[in-house]
Amino acid sequence: xxxxxxxxxxxxxxxxxxxxxxxxxxxxxxxxxxxxxxxxxxxxxxxxxxxxxxxxxxxxxxxxxxxxxxxxxxxxxxxxxxxxxxxxxxxxxxxxxxxxxxxxxxxxxxxxxxxxxxxxxxxxxxxxxxxxxxxxxxxxxxxxxxxxxxxxxxxxxxxxxxxxxxxxxxxxxxxxxxxxxxxxxxxxxxxxxxxxxxxxxxxxxxxxx
Amino acid sequence: xxxxxxxxxxxxxxxxxxxxxxxxxxxxxxxxxxxxxxxxxxxxxxxxxxxxxxxxxxxxxxxxxxxxxxxxxxxxxxxxxxxxxxxxxxxxxxxxxxxxxxxxxxxxxxxxxxxxxxxxxxxxxxxxxxxxxxxxxxxxxxxxxxxxxxxxxxxxxxxxxxxxxxxxxxxxxxxxxxxxxxxxxxxxxxxxxxxxxxxxxxxxxxxxx
Lengths: 209, 209
Prior knowledge:
With 209 residues, chain A is mainly α. Chain A contains 10 helices and no strands.
């Protein structure tokens, strides 16, 4: 499956997610809450912000907040579940002929293309996470869950262990390094391109040893 | 540097650590506390065990416990700092001619040879961690810190980023998968051998894609 085809898959899942998140009388409540929360975390700090503050800034009620997010921490990580679903769908759906790591890398690139449209959001989110140890732990847990889900998707493709687990961990390493470069780079940076470079670098590192 | 030479490096650091941990009138207090804590965590569960219980079981005082460990959680993770120091020392000390991933893999194998002598301890420790979400988080944080330290060691060898970070992450992936197999395997299992297999598998996975 080409990156383009995977991207279409991924985008249709994203659109479904988006629609589910919209209340009839609160167009894009979820997005408004996300933006309000991030603004406040940047302005006041994560610890100093309450759910009431977020709802007020978004012009919505706390009740609406809790229909979308379990707590103020989850606003920053809600996207991780969608990301995981997208990656798993893409990996499981890749043609049998595609090598395991290529299936993972293509899925990551497709997800990267979606994230690319939210670079400024991602950078500000990362700054908030970098400033808080508890949020960093949560990020590590999400990445570990992602590795585990990717390994499961590879097993569904008939990849045996330990290859499935190792490929999944390699995929997460590729993504992590590319993502770090993408948010830190001061000039323009293309996440799918950085993911491709990161894959190439991993291949060079393993081939050269 | 050969694995044997790295092992000698690693063991001398380990011996220094061990000596530091001994009080004059409490021979191997640290080891006794570790064993007592693990026994109790397995018998009663981690949450249900207090520092007072651990000290009593070890025939030592709480005061002695706190000279060795910050809290009851750290008993399970104290070895991680030593492991990190050993790995960094081995990676920095490897000859210039050794490829980055090989330097990391040789260091991991040498550390694996030391861990091999504590397999039963490692298995019981893992069962305690698997039963507690908070401990799993702590384990992820330690692994992330280890990846970061390895990347730093590689940079000191003149390896540029992103290769340094990617090699470190690949090393952690290799170790993680080998370690999981090692603790789960019901029959005999050799950790350094599993680390070599895991490296080979990663090479196959990246070459085949």
